[in-house]
Write the structure tokens for this entry.
Amino acid sequence: MAVYFISDLHLNLQQPAMTAGFLNYLKSLNDAERLYILGDFFEAWIGDDVSTPLNDAVEQGLKALSDSGCELFIMHGNRDFLIGNAFCQRTGATLIDENTVIQLGDQQVLLLHGDHLCLDDVEYQKVRLMLRNPAWQADFLSKTIPERIEFAKQARDQSKASGQMKADDIMDVTQSAVDDALSQSDTRIMIHGHTHRPKVHEWELDGQQRQRWVLGDWSESQGWQIRWTESDGLQLSQFDLSH
């Protein structure tokens, strides 16, 4: 049996081919014991009470996977931090916190979305602090659906405009934050997404070997995953989406 990790699909109504590819991907996971979705699953999630053809189709696909016996885990990203208990009940998923530590064989692995590691992006960290505030979230969810849709549209436009003006290294993780997260969780391996820079980083700190596995973002034609088995360990790969 295998354990799978994906992130940064940014599913949206404007890219139906990606949604179709993702649903086919779910059907292909015949050996999956667990699937972890590490944030930014949707381009925007404005509440569990909002129903769209996209949301309904994805929820049905996830429910079919969980009903097949695969454990499903979802972590908030910076785009879908309002996924809640109702979504999890409909899909059979379990919502997990940032900095969750899991066991893979004889190794412990730290799971994150990764956005809180980007400390050099000071402007974003201020926004993140506001958006993760329970009071702000409760106020947002009390608004009408059209109001939430308009807010999400404006936020996406502002994010794109802001990102175009920032240097690439500002939007990547800060190494000191990476090392602190590993030390605080007493782990040597982390898996995260967010940066859209798929790669396996290896380094040594105080005589300890460390690894950072970074998932890539999906397109309408290709996806990224990390797959773990007892025999092969962790493997990062890009694959074509069949429609």
Summary: The helical segments are 16-28, 53-67, 85-91, 122-131, 134-141, 145-164, 175-185. The chain has one domain: 2-240.
